[in-house]
Amino acid sequence: MKYLCSTPFAHPASVVTARLVSPPGPSRNSTRSAAASPLGAYETFLDRAAEGLTATGAFTDLDRPAFPWSRTYTRDEWLDQLRTSGLAKPLADAGKLDTILTRTATAIDAAGGTFTLNSTAVALTATRR
């Protein structure tokens, strides 16, 4: 039987949105690093999972497929996504959600009202012995 562990990685536009309202400083620089290679964070996660599966001796044929995909969002579609993301509640609690939504809308409008988000879904599969 084949088992699957998959995870999408952070939307680059979410990182861009966070940059719009983040003050300069160390936290902003770490956001830049995450944006440079969001897949890298998931590679680390998948490496650990693969090591754990291998260490059990119960799995073989580990594979790590990746599935690139793209979607074009309008400003309103993206704002709806942000309002329902896991970022919304802590930002609303901190009084920053409205600012992020306004600045994000302005940035998307300045880019022509839409943007294309390029993503990659990654997975780790293994066969149980």
UniProtKB/TrEMBL annotation:
Q: Which organism is it from?
A: Kribbella hippodromi
Name by which UniProt lists this protein:
Methyltransferase
Domain of life the protein comes from: Bacteria
